[in-house]
Amino acid sequence: MTDKFFIQTYGCQMNVYETNVVRRILADAGFAEVAREQDADVLLMMTCSVRSHAEQRALGRIGSYRTLRSDRPGRVIGVLGCMAQRHKETLIHDHGVDIVVGPDEYLRLPELIREGPNGSTGVVAAELSDQCYEQIMPRPDHEVTAFVTVMRGCDNYCTYCIVPYVKGRERSKPFSRVLAEVENLLKSGIRDITLLGQNVLAYHDDGRGFPDLLRAVSGICRDIRVRFLTSHPRDLDERTLRVMAELPNVCPSLHLPVQSGSDRILKLMNRGYTRSDYLRKVELCRRFLPGLVLSTDVLVAFPSETESDFSDTLSLVQSVRFDFAYMFRYSQRPGTKAAEIHPKVSEADSGRRLARLIEVQNRITRECNAALVGGEQELLIEGPSPRDSGFLGRTRSGKVVIVNGPARIGDLVVGRVTHLNGWTPVAELVRGPAAVPV
């Protein structure tokens, strides 16, 4: 029996969470995870289709999986998630995959593995449904931080985005199940929880919206930090911001994707707001939450974007002064409406615009982080620093800080920021966990 599996994850935080859902499903069915792909009978990957680059990375990994299968015939290769939903049989016929399982079919994975592929044809399970996996309690893969998906799918249909086509329509996990999952995580020592959704602000269950859920999760334990992402600017309102301001353990950080600063491009993207609408939302955020750490997504070189459109985006970024931004150039996704918009921006122009945007935002990020130097920050120790000596700590507002001094994972400490390493703050330990009021 093929009972040892290895899984590789590509993509966003929701894919990380869904990998943990798959791990739980397989563990409950008697499968054992191994740390090395060479030791596995089943080689799985959780995939992303948001950008072409993510798909190309996954396809490259399939090639290495095929090499391992040729060394030991009988190994099973499985592709899960967005690419499975988008490409279906193509992954079997063109790339030699054995099992293709879409985002709503993970519960079938154990039986599909044990039945094995159907001769040389493989097997595809990719029906979309209203699945939320509310019956699954995934185990976190970190000692102190965890994700909880509160809703799946999307109804926004931004013209560049493939998510509604591969994740299905918007649906919310039952209120009681979200709270039960959070309570379960607290028992395992989790101290920082991020509520996830393609647009968490659209959450609704039995007359209760996202502010109600945020208040309920916060009330389970005042000692935990609570975060959420992602938020659609159109749906952000005063009620959500009031709840954030009232609850001390809801972190003062917000990810609010703007995508573009040009009204013409925003309309083509079907974002549902204008530049001035977005700026008013930012002003509202900072009125309710002084000191808010604000991050965003920016997409350059959308089809037909002109130099003037790009200048509008650049000026918005300079005006808002985001603490951090995820910046990308447009990646054409077949089947989306944006794929039909012309003219396309040249590779040379899209690369130049992205480089300019990154240069501006990196300077702003460094300036924002430099403002922390000399001050003290409450830091949750998440693990050893991956590149430096010391530990990786995180402020309540979500900023990463390198901490020098004796500490343990899970400690809540106070550090004084002494300098920046690049744009990352570095702090000396001032007080250990016993001295920190929670």
The rounded distance between the terminal residues' Cα atoms is: 49 Å
pLDDT below 50 for ≥5 consecutive residues: which ranges? none
- Integer-rounded radius of gyration: 22 Å
Number of helices: 13
The tally of structural domains comes to 3
Write the layout of secondary structure elements.
Layout: E1 4-9, H1 13-28, E2 32-33, E3 42-47, H2 52-71, E4 76-81, H3 82-87, H4 89-95, E5 99-101, H5 109-115, E6 123-125, E7 145-149, E8 151-152, H6 163-167, E9 171-172, H7 175-187, E10 192-196, E11 204-205, E12 208-209, H8 210-220, E13 225-229, H9 238-246, E14 253-255, H10 263-269, H11 275-288, E15 293-300, H12 307-320, E16 324-329, H13 347-370, E17 376-384, E18 391-394, E19 400-404, E20 412-421, E21 424-431
Parallel strand pairs: 1-2, 1-3, 3-4, 4-5, 5-6, 7-10, 10-13, 14-15, 15-16, 19-21
Antiparallel strand pairs: 8-9, 11-12, 17-18, 17-20, 18-19, 20-21
Question: What features would you describe in this structure?
Answer:
By secondary structure, the chain is α/β, with parallel strands linked by helices. It has three domains: 4-125, Methylthiotransferase, N-terminal domain (Rossmann fold); 145-370, pyruvate-formate lyase- activating enzyme, CATH 3.80.30.20; 376-435, Nucleic acid-binding proteins (OB fold (Dihydrolipoamide Acetyltransferase, E2P)), CATH 2.40.50. Helices cover 35% and strands 23% of the residues. It contains 13 helices and 21 strands. The protein has helices at residues 13-28, 52-71, 82-87, 89-95, 109-115, 163-167, 175-187, 210-220, 238-246, 263-269, 275-288, 307-320, 347-370; strands at 4-9, 32-33, 42-47, 76-81, 99-101, 123-125, 145-149, 151-152, 171-172, 192-196, 204-205, 208-209, 225-229, 253-255, 293-300, 324-329, 376-384, 391-394, 400-404, 412-421, 424-431. Strands 2-1-3-4-5-6 form a six-stranded parallel β-sheet, sandwiched between helices. α7 (175-187) runs parallel beside α8. It is globular.
